[in-house]
């Protein structure tokens, strides 16, 4: 097998490691590309390509993360990871760990860890690397890496959600939610929302949102969704059901098929606990052409005003 073939075989794994460390598709792809350059320039051929490249991509991702964290502190409004519609790396033996670690909720918890804790958790808990490999990748002792793993696991277990195990039940609940969304049916929405549900969005100050401060509680969230739905569908918007970061969700598209945003649902105990929307155009570009959300909002407002205007009464016939 050539070097190129070895690298391409491992590319899905490398991207998945980098994405979980960085929470960014574009930055993860850059980290993988940098790993390829270092792999290609290596004077000797490593005994284990997987260990070598996993270590390289982890180090590159950590360097990027340290500078990215400074930028995120200045981010306008809530910061969410760039939505990922499909994980390129699949491992049937670790499918549950891979899916849970990909969720928006889990990635936001990872943001609370130090960069080293985050890297150790991803390598150990998600991808099952041994501590000797992790120690080599991070240039730390095995004892230090084990301590980092304990701290990271404690932080993650304290706040990590436990999603419904039955994928089909989650999908059916998501279908009911988006059916109610399309119809603007408040009562149907209330049937699938948890009492303490919260809805919050990431626009980065670059797109209109229905309140970046978020909506909390079943009544407020149901009303907000029901208000947004007729405006969106009234201008030809389309809701395309799709997994978002391994959880039920949807891609919202404008009339011309361009992407307006993503909605990801956290489902627990047969109810939707959280709705996270991403509409920042910078975070959607990897998915295809992005719609002008401001233009769509202006069109929706014109349509609503037109619908609200009373029609002139017809003159009575003599």
UniProtKB/TrEMBL annotation:
<keyword id="KW-0731">Sigma factor</keyword>
<protein>
    <submittedName>
        <fullName>RNA polymerase subunit sigma-24</fullName>
    </submittedName>
</protein>
<comment type="subunit">
    <text>Interacts transiently with the RNA polymerase catalytic core formed by RpoA, RpoB, RpoC and RpoZ (2 alpha, 1 beta, 1 beta' and 1 omega subunit) to form the RNA polymerase holoenzyme that can initiate transcription.</text>
</comment>
<keyword id="KW-0804">Transcription</keyword>
<dbReference type="InterPro" id="IPR013325">
    <property type="entry name" value="RNA_pol_sigma_r2"/>
</dbReference>
<feature type="domain" description="RNA polymerase sigma-70 region 2">
    <location>
        <begin position="7"/>
        <end position="69"/>
    </location>
</feature>
<dbReference type="InterPro" id="IPR013324">
    <property type="entry name" value="RNA_pol_sigma_r3/r4-like"/>
</dbReference>
<dbReference type="Pfam" id="PF08281">
    <property type="entry name" value="Sigma70_r4_2"/>
</dbReference>
<dbReference type="InterPro" id="IPR014303">
    <property type="entry name" value="RNA_pol_sigma-70_ECF"/>
</dbReference>
<keyword id="KW-0805">Transcription regulation</keyword>
<dbReference type="InterPro" id="IPR007627">
    <property type="entry name" value="RNA_pol_sigma70_r2"/>
</dbReference>
<dbReference type="GO" id="GO:0006352">
    <property type="term" value="P:DNA-templated transcription initiation"/>
</dbReference>
<dbReference type="InterPro" id="IPR052704">
    <property type="entry name" value="ECF_Sigma-70_Domain"/>
</dbReference>
<dbReference type="InterPro" id="IPR032710">
    <property type="entry name" value="NTF2-like_dom_sf"/>
</dbReference>
<dbReference type="GO" id="GO:0003677">
    <property type="term" value="F:DNA binding"/>
</dbReference>
<feature type="domain" description="RNA polymerase sigma factor 70 region 4 type 2">
    <location>
        <begin position="105"/>
        <end position="156"/>
    </location>
</feature>
<dbReference type="InterPro" id="IPR036388">
    <property type="entry name" value="WH-like_DNA-bd_sf"/>
</dbReference>
<comment type="similarity">
    <text>Belongs to the sigma-70 factor family. ECF subfamily.</text>
</comment>
<dbReference type="GO" id="GO:0016987">
    <property type="term" value="F:sigma factor activity"/>
</dbReference>
<dbReference type="InterPro" id="IPR013249">
    <property type="entry name" value="RNA_pol_sigma70_r4_t2"/>
</dbReference>
<dbReference type="Pfam" id="PF04542">
    <property type="entry name" value="Sigma70_r2"/>
</dbReference>
